[in-house]
Amino acid sequence: MKTPLLIMTIIVAVVIIALAIMLLTFHAKRTAINVQRIGLVTIPMNVPRIFVNSAFANGSQIPPMYTCDGADISIPITLGNIPSNAKSIMVIIEDLNAPGGVFIHWVLYDIPPNVTQIQEGLPTEYYIPGIGYQGVNDFGKIGYGGPCPPPGPPHEYVVIVLALNITINPAPNLYDREIINSLNVHDVVGYGILIGYYGHG
């Protein structure tokens, strides 16, 4: 008499396990996010695209005045199509071709989401009223550090603009890499990309 009961118990257990696996698989498919990795930044591809413009067209050369060969001032940025659920904006500039790996030139964060114009030549200070906060770049300095590649082919510089559903806890002397590494892909609700080139060929 115990054998049929044991068989029935095993069948029920197998059915429950199968249903659990099906539910987990379905949930994984529903929550999977298609992402793109650009340097140190992970960007979800299922969020709105932000309009980004600057002093150079996408895919063109960065003017020398924004590099170590000129005044080395920060680039101007015009933004548009910021998602309504954004709580802050972050600007990141990476050199993807640096000899030692990705080189971070600038992180400007906790920008209010209603800001659409960032003027050129921002001061190299931790806090800029009405604009946001700046981290310490890979040159070891606060704020923007322009392209300054070694002799050779032009390097690819990527301006990444992220709309975030969070704000960062600002702190003096926070390194750009720390700021980027603190982000979760689910924090990003919009993104924009602008690519420029500069070299000492």
Topology:
Blueprint: H1 2-31, E1 35-38, E2 41-44, E3 51-53, E4 60-61, E5 77-80, E6 88-95, E7 103-111, E8 117-118, E9 127-128, E10 132-134, E11 155-164, H2 176-181, E12 188-198
Parallel strand pairs: 4-12
Antiparallel strand pairs: 1-2, 3-5, 5-8, 6-7, 6-11, 7-10, 9-10, 11-12
Strand count, sense and closure of the main sheet?
Answer: 7 strands, mixed
Number of helices: 2
Low-confidence stretches: 26-31
SSE sequence, one letter per element = HEEEEEEEEEEEHE
CATH structural architecture of the largest domain: Alpha-Beta Complex
Strand content: 25-35%
Q: What's the N-to-C terminus distance?
A: 87 Å
CATH topology of the largest domain: the name is Phosphatidylethanolamine-binding Protein
Overall spatial form: elongated
Kindly report the average pLDDT value: 90
Main β-sheet, spatial strand arrangement = 4-12-11-6-7-10-9
CATH superfamily of the largest domain: PEBP-like
The count of β-strands is 12
* Structural class estimated from helices and strands: alpha+beta
CATH class bucket of the largest domain: Alpha Beta
Radius of gyration: 23 Å
Percent of residues in helical segments?
Answer: 10-25%
Total number of domains: 2
Description:
The chain has two domains: 32 residues; 163 residues, PEBP-like (Phosphatidylethanolamine-binding Protein, Alpha-Beta Complex). The chain contains two helices and twelve strands; from the N terminus they run H-E-E-E-E-E-E-E-E-E-E-E-H-E. The relative contact order is 0.21. It has a seven-stranded mixed beta sheet. A three-stranded antiparallel beta sheet has the order 3-5-8, with no helix packed on it. It starts with a helix and ends with a strand. The chain is elongated. The chain is 18% helix and 31% strand. With 201 residues, the protein is of the alpha+beta class.
